[in-house]
Design goal:
Two copies of one chain form a homodimer.
Chain A: H1 33-45, H2 49-60, E1 65-66, H3 67-70, H4 78-90, E2 94-99, E3 102-107, H5 113-119
Chain A binds a DNA duplex (30 and 30 nucleotides) through α4.
DNA sequence: TTATTACATTGACATCTGTCTTTTCAATAG
DNA sequence: CTATTGAAAAGACAGATGTCAATGTAATAA
């Protein structure tokens, strides 16, 4: 993953075959480093079909969902699901609570707002 | 990447400490396999900050942008940029046209619609 | 023709990812 | 206490990813 993302600056080309323009200069990018890093992190976490469906289930379900209910939804082993949930947690998309033996996951809706707004 | 994503089905647990419910049954997921695969593919392509900024520049710029204008915006070598553009092309997010020596890239806005709607 | 330019492709490399099995850990059951 | 259960963590492993240098290719310039 790129971590050294620079602030973008337009440096017009100079060497160019006589008289011909390459293209109109691009607009100065609205999405700056930090925002791009944040949104790409969220997009990356959603970039796996199982994780995307996990988020979908958690979003559609009002409240918190037990891992024991999520496991049978997917054809993957329990530790693999746990791994995906951790990725979503690390990206700030979901959080979890322990209650006795069970772990309940829920979406942090604000985590998707920035990416959602940018995509709209 | 998971390619064998099943249609999700809720199979209620049976083994459970006496009398205690794990949680409310989750809703049947609205996002099915194919849709999840498509949206995850798009999200994955956006899951790199350079690619996300590339898409941002191309979206904000009305029209088609020459690669020669994109290269100086980023601190990466030209083949690396070419690689990222190919990823975006493979995901159906952008397309390109050749005109003489130059290659012009542009966003296919419809490619983002499904993910955008799901996130909203 | 020969040189140069714009971009893509190839090959190499270290790192990351998704998956599984095995193990660990905390909480509950008996 | 010990056994069991739900979930996370550790370790292994094949495959993917991001990067760059070098090379390839097609078009233009001289």
């Amino acid at each position: 993953m790129s971590v050294d993302l620079p602030v973008l600056e337009l440096s017009p080309k100079t060497k160019r075959p006589a008289g011909e323009r390459c293209c109109e200069p691009v607009v100065y990018p609205d999405v700056q480093r930090e925002q791009a890093l944040r949104m790409a992190e969220v997009a990356k976490a959603l970039g796996d079909p199982i994780r995307l469906q996990l988020v979908d289930v958690l979003r559609k379900h009002a409240g918190k969902v037990c891992v024991c209910e999520l496991v049978p939804l997917f054809d993957i082993a329990q530790p693999t699901l746990s791994h995906h949930l951790k990725k979503l947690r690390d990206a700030g998309i979901v959080d979890s609570e322990r209650q006795g033996l069970w772990a309940y996951y829920y979406v942090l809706p604000a985590a998707l707002n920035e990416l959602s707004a940018w995509l709209s």
